[in-house]
């Protein structure tokens, strides 16, 4: 190589390298803005008192930043996602006692408990589902698919029967849940999913106090007998029932007092959010004890928790791997039970 050629070639290489570096920096900046910029600007302020610091290793996209429904394409696949969203929001219209597709579930909607079509932060949203299922559930002792998890809520929370895996409805629900989870890396925890953390009370949750909380904070919508308020055309509910024959059954997730207390703390009275709760922790625990002490449909689940030592502390049905009573398991105090377990039996 002649000296002159070398002088021409080297600056050329340097320029190319600089260009490549600039392009790389640009890409990184765009990615950062995409994921963190707008989120940081509009994310709700986390309330350390109720939700604690972000979970270790959590993927920092607050759950309230679900993908925009306007981005669902107008293709056949997009229509399926939209139908899935519709089924979550208005389940009873399609599958309830007057359902247009089948009569399989009670008059409730998935959205009654998975608020805003399963997108609201700490209100039981679906953002992490696609990234975490199939997963091992101690309840069944098996690896569970999204379909099986959906069926579980249809049988317990909606006290009915599930649509078959191959049905148009199940395919649409799974498509919507998968669409919601787009961009979330497999196995990552998402901040804002599940429920808020609610410290245990030192005492048992108190149904008598909870009854008074119910009267002042819940009854005006859910009715004096917790029966809810049916829609005028009887196709579902304006305000869903909290107990009685049309409510979730005693095998449902919400029948566990900790789940109900944590849900109610961040979501009820309707309009409350995890960063703007309306109940004290005590009120949430006590009202949950009251609601779950009222009558509701019974479903025998003899095959649940094949390993009883894995039951969550507040699993209200024995047998247990410890000496605590069903009553204490149901209403607390929970800390002594947790302390007595070699491996603390936590939720799920
Ligand atoms: C009465 C309240 C209620 C209703 C109605 C309800 N669910 Fe659920 N669902 C829960 C609770 C509580 C949990 C989590 C607690 C647990 O796992 O025990 C849950 C969990 C789930 C999960 C797993 C979430 C995760 O991150 O692991 C999926 C998926 C789900 N529900 C789908 C549905 C679908 C679909 C419907 C309607 C067909 C529905 N649910 C109706 C209360 C409800
Ligand atoms: C302003 C009316 C209103 C008040 C007050 C209210 N709720 Fe609700 N509640 C709703 C609505 C509406 C839903 C269904 C949300 C949806 O579908 O988007 C709901 C859903 C629920 C659910 C899940 C579905 C079910 O029926 O099991 C529970 C549990 C619940 N509320 C408990 C409570 C408790 C406990 C209180 C009092 C602390 C309370 N709510 C106060 C309107 C209200």
UniProtKB/TrEMBL annotation:
Entry-linked Pfam families: Cytochrom_C (PF00034), SoxA-TsdA_cyt-c (PF21342)
Segments forming domain Cytochrome c: 205-295
Transmembrane segments: 12-36
Keyword Ion transport: no
Basic and acidic residues: bias regions: 304-314
SUPFAM superfamilies in UniProt: Cytochrome c
GO molecular function, one term: heme binding
UniProt-recorded name of the protein: Cytochrome C
Native source species: Hymenobacter nivis
Keywords: Heme, Iron, Membrane, Metal-binding, Transmembrane, Transmembrane helix
Annotated spans, Disordered: 52-78, 297-348
């Amino acid at each position: 190589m002649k000296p002159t050629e070398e002088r021409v070639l080297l600056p050329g290489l340097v320029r190319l390298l600089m260009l490549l570096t600039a392009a790389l920096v640009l890409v990184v900046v765009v990615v950062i803005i995409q994921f963190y910029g707008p989120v940081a600007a509009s994310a709700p302020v986390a309330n350390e008192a109720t939700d604690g610091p972000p979970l270790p290793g959590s993927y920092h996209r607050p759950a309230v930043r679900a993908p925009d429904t306007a981005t669902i394409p107008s293709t056949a696949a997009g229509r399926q996602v939209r139908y899935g969203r519709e089924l979550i929001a208005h389940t009873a219209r399609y599958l309830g006692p007057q359902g247009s597709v089948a009569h399989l579930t009670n008059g409730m909607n998935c959205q009654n408990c998975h608020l805003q079509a399963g997108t609201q932060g700490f209100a039981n949203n679906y953002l992490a589902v696609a990234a975490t299922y199939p997963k091992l559930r101690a309840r069944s002792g098996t690896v569970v698919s999204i379909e099986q998890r959906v069926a579980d809520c249809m049988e317990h929370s909606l006290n009915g029967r599930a649509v078959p895996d191959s049905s148009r409805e199940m395919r649409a629900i799974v498509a919507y849940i998968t669409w919601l989870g787009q961009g979330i890396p497999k196995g990552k925890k998402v901040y804002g999913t599940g429920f808020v953390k609610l410290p245990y009370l030192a005492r048992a949750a108190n149904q008598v106090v909870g009854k008074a909380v119910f009267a002042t904070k819940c009854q005006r919508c859910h009715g004096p007998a917790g029966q809810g308020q049916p829609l005028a055309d009887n196709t579902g509910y304006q305000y869903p029932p909290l107990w009685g024959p049309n409510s979730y059954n005693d095998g449902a997730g919400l029948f566990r007092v900790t789940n109900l207390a944590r849900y109610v703390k961040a979501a009820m009275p309707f309009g409350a959010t995890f960063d703007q709760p309306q109940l004290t922790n005590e009120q949430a625990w006590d009202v949950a004890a009251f609601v779950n002490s009222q009558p509701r449909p019974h479903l025998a689940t003899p095959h649940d928790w094949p390993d009883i030592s894995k039951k969550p502390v507040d699993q209200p049905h024995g047998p247990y791997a410890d000496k605590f009573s069903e009553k204490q398991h149901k209403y607390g105090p929970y800390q002594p039970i947790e302390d007595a377990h070699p491996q603390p039996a936590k939720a799920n």
